[in-house]
Amino acid sequence: MAAGGSASRRAQEARRQERLLRQQWQAARRQAQRWEAASEGEQCVAAKLLFLTARGWRLLVDRRWPGTRAGNVDMLLIGPGGVFVLDVKNWRAAPETANGKLCAAGEPRDEHVTKLLAVTKAAEGAVASLGMSPVAVQPFMVFAGHGVDARLGRVRLLGEREVAPALLRERCRLRPESVRAIADHLDRVFPEYEGSSVAQDDWGTGERGPGERDQGKQNPGERDMGGAGASRAAGTAAVAEPPPDDGLFDLDGLREAALEEALRAPIEQWMTFLHPDQVALVRRNWAGPARISGPAGTGKTVVGLHRTARLAQRTTGRVLYVTFANNLPRVQATFLRTMSPAVADRVDFRSLHSFAREFLHEHGVPVRLHREKALTAFNRAWSRVGRGSCLTEIDPSDRYWKEEIDHVIKGRGITSFEEYANVPRRRRRAALRRPHREAVWRLYEAYESLRTERGVHDFNDVLSLALAEARRRGGQHPYAAVVVDEVQDLTLVGVRLLHTLVGDVPNGLLLVGDGQQAVYPGGFRLTDAGIDIRGDRSQVLRTNYRNSKEILEAALAVVADDTFEDIDGLRTPGRRDVDLTYHDGQVIRVCKPTPAGHDQALLEALRALSPSARADAAVLCPSLRAIGHYQRLLEGAGIPVCLLDQYDGHPVEAVKLGSYLRAKGLEFKRVYLPEHDAAVTRPPTTRPPRPPRPETADERDALARSRLFVAMTRARDLLWLGRVHS
Ligand SMILES: Nc1ncnc2c1ncn2[C@@H]1O[C@H](COP(=O)(O)OP(=O)(O)OP(=O)(O)O)[C@@H](O)[C@H]1O
């Protein structure tokens, strides 16, 4: 190789080095400018937030993002309103949102949202071990020098002036000791940045600098918040105390404080802490349909609601939360709005039938629901072909046979006799031989023909029409997820309808319920519905957080001899093993020789309550007639009453009054059950010969006991059981 060639190579190399140095120098200059701007921006924001520390908030500024090589978190704020992950932006152009995207100066900036959500997820993971629900962790993107208050999915976009008022307006969910423990924990998990020394490796060719620990793309000419500025602000804003020596002591203390708080508070206030096992269910990824079951009061609904909020945070589609009862969706919507207002608009709370009707209406499917005309059609059919048939040998009352049509035939979507002839009649005790099934089928056909003649639909028709329409539309549904509460009360057609909306997609369908609390006749198994729940997708909660030992014992005594079949087909004894949390409670039994004396005792008990205590008291009755009677009695005595049909979960200073069925899924500090044993007969314990009873009587009694059990387990602190007996 010639000497001249080597000199030229050295010159080329020197020029390459010079170019590299120049690029690095330019990068350093750009970075220094960003830091200057950033520190100015961050100082502004930090200054606006500093006063919060005097109001019990803790600020952790410029923190290392665990699990990443160089990621940082601008600020973590922990205060009465929860945990907030702040990403501070110091952009020249104002942020804009269009079609669910973040832009500035016409350029897309979604990568900043992605990064903030990823940091938020890390923070959620960190507090989950303390039993804190992800709904209590919120991502805020704060824009120095701009005025803004907008939402982009889960992320709240705020200007530097808007951020502090927004934080202060947050509903109070953490007590000072919880704030302290959570802040200490986050302080350990997201440690402070150690210095801001410039690592040559991190520089590359000027694409990244030490201030760009932010993993999102830096837009040219943009002044994004960098770590160095943040560190300087940290000198003044961070008030994190050194972590205590024994972290575990802290965590235990926090769990105990949270549990105490929960046991004192009504469900309205139960919105931040769960048992860590429950948080795991809230956050778990399931590959297909899943189920959460467990005895009364074990937190199924609470987990269902927190999971709903979480799904709404993490998906772009809507979430449907369905129960059978009409009044529950209102109450649950109130809870969710209280717990997680940011996502409340993305969740539809519906009763199954109102959902089906809306669904048909939206898709232009005509439906003429007419309960009275449908009932007249049934009564005619009964007079024509039922009353004189062999069915009366089994049960002379038409009610049992109407239930057979509603819950077994139409509820399961059966349309041929052959199918009905062989179907296992779940939760129906009376055995039907073929002639009886033929007679039922004749009754069904007569009813259907009279109903169609009148041009009306019944409730089951509404569900069947909706199922047909949902299937016709294939996968075109707006729901990312469907959560079904009190699933044991639904009919098979109802469950199929909800399953069709989301199919078997991951995290799509969640069924929440407890077979022991079934309060309607009939039933189904998951296999009948074609829903395959396997492995860890079936979870059982076992700790009762609601009832004291005395109250639960009294309730379990009612159903102790009734085994029940759950939707997974398992038979379970009525007296189930439940773990109890330590909790005081009282059962008061009042027995009077006359109805007047009994009612007087009830009035005295209610009069003794303060107005605020009345707000958390409920009088529950087995029948509409009894509700009418007690409404007149209470109002006549000047005790304000709120009917459960109208209750929406907001506190009202009135005694709640309603049926056992309407009380499902709810709870109250004090529950009063006047004449509680009137509708219930214990299973016969006398030796044969016993007096003859219709075969269906046992079934009816078992249902009445289940309803009473449900009503009794609504009580947290006090259960008043009235009885008339001479
Ligand atoms: N981890 C927990 N710690 C303390 N209390 C809890 C916890 N989880 C739930 N609770 C409380 O337990 C009570 C019962 O919760 P929830 O209504 O969700 O139970 P459930 O299983 O749906 O009851 P049911 O089937 O009887 O309607 C509520 O007051 C709730 O706040």
TrEMBL record:
For bias type Basic and acidic residues, the affected ranges are: 209-225
User: Which SUPFAM superfamilies does this entry report, sorted A to Z?
Assistant: P-loop containing nucleoside triphosphate hydrolases (SSF52540)
Q: Which residues bind ATP?
A: 294-301
| InterPro entries, per the entry | DExx_box_DNA_helicase_dom_sf, DNA_helicase_UvrD/REP, NERD, P-loop_NTPase, UvrD-like_ATP-bd
UniProt keywords (A-Z) are: ATP-binding, Helicase, Hydrolase, Nucleotide-binding
Location of the UvrD-like helicase ATP-binding domain: 273-548
- Provide the residue span(s) of the region labelled Disordered: 197-245, 677-699
Bias class Low complexity marks the residues at 230-240
Q: Does the keyword Hydrolase apply?
A: yes
Which Gene3D superfamilies does the UniProt entry name for this protein?
A: 1.10.10.160, P-loop containing nucleotide triphosphate hydrolases
Q: What is the protein's given name?
A: UvrD-helicase domain-containing protein
- Originating species: Streptomyces oryzae
